[in-house]
Amino acid sequence: MKTLICIAALAIPLIASAERADRFEQTVIASDGAMHYDTIKGVVHASDNVVLTKGSLWIASDSLTVTETPDGYHVYTVHAANGHLARFKQKQDSTDDKWIHGEGSTITYVEKDDLLTIDGHANVKFLASGKVTEEAASAKITYDAHSEQFFTENADGAAKTRSIVTIAARPDPLKKPL
After folding, report:
1. Segments of the chain with pLDDT less than 70
2. Helix ranges, the chain (H)
3. Bridge partners of residue 74, in order along the sequence
4. How far apart are CA 119 and CA 86, in angstroms?
């Protein structure tokens, strides 16, 4: 009996974490332009001010393509046009008010792996209670939402672009708050 109680107690954090996982939420796509959904192939094309929401994940851009993988997961790709940038934001798995915001020319979200890849003028900001705590800029940034880690790199075949990461300073314990 004690073993069952211990196993149940250990499983509670896993259950709580899974309930908040965006990849298990429904996907809602809104568009001001044309939208085509091929239910047999599992492909969606949308254009003109497209907004995708999936739990706390929000992605907006000029066009969107959704494809379904053979194992039933989805890959969402948005493209910015005419000098615009595609944007996203997502709440991090935390009891605090922590969010990640990002933008770039193209954003791809792989549902199965909870992986966001931002290509072209990529910029990512981590916010806590509305204040930027960390920031990264590069040609390409990949964000693993599951592990809450990001990786910067140069775009394939492009001229080298300097990656910049800014990490927030710790508060001075001797300084009085305002």
Report:
1. 1-21, 23, 155-164, 166, 168, 170, 177-178
2. 2-20
3. 68
4. 10
- DSSP codes of every residue in 33-44: S-EEEETTTTEE
Q: Could you tell me the two tokens for 106?
A: 């193209």
Count CA atoms closer than 13 A to 154's CA, side-chain side.
Answer: 7
Cα–Cα dist 64/74, whole Å: 12
State how far the alpha carbon of 115 is from the alpha carbons of 86, 121, 169, in Å: 16, 18, 27
Reported for 148-156, long-range contacts at CB under 8 A and 24+ positions apart, including other chains, are 148/92, 148/93, 150/124, 152/122, 155/119, 155/120
Separation CA 138–CA 124 (nearest Å): 9
Q: Is the dihedral of CA 171, 172, 177, 178 positive or negative?
A: negative
CB 122 within 8 A of CB 138: yes
Tokens of 8: 């149940």
In angstroms, rounded to a whole number, what is the distance separating the alpha carbons of residues 37 and 35?
A: 7
Q: What is the bridge-based pairing of β-strands 35-38 and 57-68?
A: unpaired
pTM above 0.70, yes or no: yes
For residue 135, which of 145, 125, 147 has the smallest C-alpha distance? 125
